[in-house]
Amino acid sequence: MSTTIVVVGAGVSGLTSALLLSKDETNVITVVAKHMPGDYDIEYASPWAGADVSPMATADGSRWERRTWPELKRLAQDVPEAGIHFQKNQVYRREKDFQGEVAMMDLFDPNPWFKDMFDGFRNLEKHELPPGHDSGIEFESVCLNTSIYLHWLLGQCLKAGVVVKRGILTHLREAKSWSHTGKPADVVINATALGSLKLGGVEDKTLAPARGQIVVVRNECTPMVASSGTDDGPTELMYLMQRAGGGGTILGGTYDIGNWESVPDPNIAIRIMTRVVKARPEIVGEGQGIEGLSIVRHAVGLRPWRKDGVRIEREKFDDGLDVIHNYGHAGWGYQGSYGCAERVVELLEEIRSEQARAP
């Protein structure tokens, strides 16, 4: 017997969920979303991401990233059209940053849980560190060109028979009637990210934006880098990653929880560029400052931060509709995408088993 499924949301979480669900040919899947790959809107977080793999979870909560890494690694090796390439990742630590709360704390652990997950893990020598840093690590990671990867992911869904529709929902219950089959959905997958803050039937008040401002430049520079902190304030970061397939180099950034501002701040942009050029002067060449950067654009994205972390769980509405939630990934949506979608598939199997046993 087939299961009619409607996935709400066409970001990386929604599309990856739809793709993994489509592996079971008895699932009949429709994706409905306000925004699609190719759109650039502040409500749509996925296109703005870096995106690389820099583990952010604790060891106890690392399932999503552990399960995603093998698939991203495979795509980088075997599927060049997905827009993913290998890059070394250098993570720099400043001891003075660890007196209080640090964003992505586990990434900067000097003895991280993920050291056996990546190839080429090693501690950096003192001469390899940028000024002001005390220690660091390096490992082989990947960087995704989101403008290529999201379209590739959508294409894989279409190839698998998933039907995609544009639409705006005010209540999650409305998704029940959006299946392309004309039948009511048996199960709805909620992958609306920050949209779950206001979406009727969810209205998760623990969600907030984690504003990320970046600069995209034509200058090439590897490896990827990330620092545990800056001297420009607690919401400002320093990171760099070169996207695959001519996607430019991302200079970042900020992690400002609760800030909804969608317009890039020129003063923050100058600080972002200054920090990167100071740490990696080879990006512009000897003797040049930020004027040596060839800017493609300034951009802002709103990460879907959730106070209690990602929500991947079942819910049954009072009308009997079965819902699976998959949202609240903050800044790690890509690097946890397959692991989280795998859990969505598991939860669907639980629902189907219960439905099959029902009188």
Commentary on this structure:
Its cofactor is FAD. This is FAD dependent oxidoreductase domain-containing protein. This protein has about 350 residues and is α/β, with parallel strands linked by helices. The chain is about 20% helix and about 25% strand. It has five helices and 15 strands. The protein has helices at about 10-20, 65-80, 145-160, 265-280, 335-355; strands spanning about 5-10, 25-35, 85-95, 120-125, 135-145, 165, 185-190, 205-215, 225, 235-240, 250-255, 255, 295-305, 310-315, 320-325. Strand 1 (about 5-10), helix 1 and strand 2 (about 25-35) form a beta-alpha-beta unit. Helix 1 (about 10-20) packs parallel to helix 3 (about 145-160) and helix 1 crosses helix 5. It is elongated and about 75 Å long.
Quick gist of this model?
Belongs to the DAMOX/DASOX family. The chain is α/β, with parallel strands linked by helices.
Topology of this protein?
Blueprint: E1 3-8, H1 12-21, E2 27-33, H2 63-78, E3 84-93, E4 122-123, E5 135-144, H3 146-159, E6 163-166, E7 187-190, E8 207-217, E9 224-227, E10 236-242, E11 249-254, E12 256-257, H4 266-279, E13 295-306, E14 311-316, E15 322-327, H5 337-357
Parallel strand pairs: 1-2, 1-7, 2-6, 3-9, 7-15
Antiparallel strand pairs: 3-5, 4-5, 8-11, 8-12, 8-13, 9-10, 10-11, 14-15
InterPro entries: D-amino_acid_oxidase_CS (IPR006181), DAO (IPR023209), FAD-dep_OxRdtase (IPR006076)
Binding site for D-dopa: 239, 303, 331
Pfam families: DAO (PF01266)
